[in-house]
Each structure stands twice: as structure tokens, then as C-alpha cells.
Amino acid sequence: MRGIADLDAGGRVVLLRADLNVPRDGTAITDDLRIRASLPTIKALTGQGARVLVCAHLGRPKGDDYAARAAGGPSLRPVADRLGELLGQPVRFAADVAGPSAAAVAAGLADGEVGLLENVRFEPAETSKDDAVRGELAGRLAALAERYVGDGFGALHRKHASVYDVPALLPHAAGELVLAEVAVLRQLTENPKRPYVVVLGGAKISDKLAVVANLAAISDRILIGGGMAFTFLAARGYDVGRSLVEQDMVAEVGRLLDQAGGAQIVLPEDMVAATEFAADAAYETVPVSGFPADRTGLDIGPATCELFAAKLADAGTVFWNGPMGVFEFPAFAAGTKAVAEAISRVRGLTVVGGGDSAAAVRKLGFPESAFSHISTGGGASLEYLEGKALPGLVALGAGT
User: Fold this and answer.
1) Helices 302-312 & 334-344 angle (0-180, nearest 10)
2) Is 378 considered catalytic here?
3) What's CA 391's distance to the chain center, in Å?
4) Which range (41-55, 219-233, 259-273) has the least confidence?
5) Catalytic member of 301, 355, 377, 392
6) Is 210 helix (H, G, I), strand (E, B) or coil?
7) C-alpha count within 13 angstroms, C-beta hemisphere, residue 386
8) For residue 212, is pLDDT > 60?
9) Which distant-in-sequence residues (6+ apart) come within 8 Å of 246 by Cβ?
10) Is residue 355 flagged as an active site residue?
11) Which helix H or strand E contains 47, and what residues bound it?
């Protein structure tokens, strides 16, 4: 893939596909990591004298047409304000995606200035499975600019108009964030320093089974926590009470455990069992062999925390994706905190795989510097580690 230095962007309008899909409370941004992650690419482009027109999505607006989505969906206007604060310069905001307002903002940019288009997912065509429908939107977006930079790593696994189709219409390059993310993922898949330990959590194994299977062939240990652990425990014959179990996945998980290749799959030894899924629920720590029938597991227990810490102590490479429990509830955050602490002590490469894992380390007070890399794209990272070709990467590597 070509980088920004190869793009000849000075004095030209550059359509920059960024990932600004930030968490928020109403219109208030609660975590600006993804905005900050976009700054190196924006600054590199403005430093060349490019006129940067940023395109991004926010949430998943619903509706059959633009008007319905724009009326009920989240606007990127607060993101434009925050981006301007971080850049130390105004960011012009277009009130539409690829219409008159977008054209006016694009035409009005001077060298080194930045504009932001409205939420690209207000356009139903952005996510259409019809190539022609996506192509029409891609044409309107491409008409706004003379160059394209793909830097929205968290969206690269989507075959969307702004990610996949626009690069075919303009001279293009990968942004600094995408190049950095891919470099880290290559370290996780191409001759990683050993022992290579993978830590997986989150709610559902159905979302990660292919990742586990692929990583089992190249890693040394896979530690399983979170809600997905209960499906693994059920596959090993344990009764886990009212805990989350994907019954249709139990047999497949059992086969995976029996055919895990060279990796050791480590399951919890004890769990924190609560009376209900609630922050103030009564709870107790129980061994997995004695889980009460009327309880729900909401975190890994202290013995498992010690076990996982021991399995991480000598790691040369760590990839972590998914919390160990319901970390949003203080009573059930101890497992995730313990694992984060253990990973932060590892001297080798430590990668936090975005999504809830990244949110957890910040909520629990860990500095970003405690880890080698915190990814901005959980889903994209997982699909890369699964061995899938990411449409956005394919598009950036096609050359123009």
C-alpha cells in the first residue's frame, strides 16, 4: 500500500475516510480515542498543504431514506467541534454527505484547512449490498475531491461505498493509522515472539469461534473469559446455571477444544455468580464445578485471575480482545482489571484489540502507555486475525 508521502496531496482536496465512531451520551462524546487516533494522518496531510475533507460514520442510523436517517440518527457536528479543538483550528462542517453543503465546504477549503462531512451512514447507499447503488454514492463522494486516503481502520472490514468503492475512482493511499494497525497485526500473525498468549472475552463465542480456531494454530495459549467462557464450560460438561450459553455452539466448541492444534486453551476455574444481571445484585465466588443452578456468572473469580496472570507472566506477545466480566458494574470489574494489570506487566508486545477491551482499560484507569498498542478497530482486527481479506485493505492495495 502507498502512504501519504506518495500521494502528491499539496493544494488538492483529499477525501479522508476516518473512523470517528465515538461513544457518546446523547450528543456528549464520552471517549475521544478515535478522534485523537485520526490526528497524525490529518496533520500529515495539512502539513503538505492538502485540503482535507473528512468522511466518517457514527452509529447505525435507521430508515429507508436519507431524510429518515438524518432526522433520527446521530450527527457528526459534535465530532467536528472536538476535532477542531484537538487540531487547534476550525473544522468546517457540511450539513449533508455528498450534496450542496458538502460541495460548498469542499470548494471553500484553503490549503491546510479541514472540513467534515455529515454522517455518511445517513446515505442508505453507503451500506448497500448492491454494487451499483454503492457506486452511485461513491461517484458523488469522489466528485468532491482529487485524492483519497483510507484511514478508518475500524471500518476496513466493511464493503461500504466510502471504504471500498471510492478508492477505485481516485488516486489513493493508506493513512498513518491504517499502516500502524496493519504493522501490529502482522506482528501478531507473522513469526510472533513466544510464548504467544491470546486472551479472549466478551459475550458470544459465535462472534469469535473462527478467530479462536485460526489463532490456535499460531499461538501457544488461549485464555477464555467473559460470557463466552460459559459455552466452553458447557461443552466440557459443566452446569453453569442461568449464565449465558449459546446452545447451538456447544457441540462446535467441543470439537474445537478437542482439536485445538498446538495451543493450550485455558478455561476459568472459578466464577463470580450473581442472583441477577444488575449492578447491585448479590453475588458469591464459586468453583466452575459447583455453579448454583439459580445464578448468573458475571465475572471470572480470583483463582482464575491468578491462573491467567501466571499464564501471561512469561509472554513474549499478547493479544487481548474482550472483557472478562461485566466491567461496567464495579462489583464485576475485578477480573478485567486483573487481566489488564497482568498484561501491562508483560515486557513483550501487548495489543489491546479495540472495542470493549479498549473501553475497559480506560474506564478502569489504565494509561494508554501501559500497552504497546490499543487498536481502534475490534471487528476489523478480529477478521484480519481470522485470516479474512478486509475489503478496505484490498481497495487500498489495488493501486491507481
Assistant:
1) 20
2) no
3) 16
4) 259-273
5) 355
6) helix
7) 17
8) yes
9) 204, 205, 206, 231
10) yes
11) helix 33-47
Among all chains, which residue has been given the C-alpha cell 486472551?
199
The alpha carbon of residue 330 and the mean position of all alpha carbons in its chain are separated, in whole angstroms, by 23
CA torsion sign for 344, 221, 380, 334 is: negative
371-397: per-residue pLDDT in tens?
999 998 878 998 999 889 999 999 998
The Cα 283–Cα 380 span in angstroms is 35
Q: What is the CA radius of gyration of the chain?
A: 22
Angle at Cα 153 formed by Cα 151 and Cα 159, nearest 5°? 100
The closest alpha carbon to 111, from 44, 12, 207, belongs to 12
Catalytic residue status for 387: no
pTM of the model as a whole: 0.91
Q: pLDDT tens for residues 334-361?
A: 999 999 999 999 999 999 987 788 889 9
Find the distance separating the first CA and the last CA of the chain, reported in whole Å: 11
365, amino acid identity: G
Q: Which of 2, 77, 82, 204 is catalytic?
A: 204
Is position 261 annotated as part of the catalytic site? no
Looking at every residue in the chain, the average pLDDT score rounds to 95
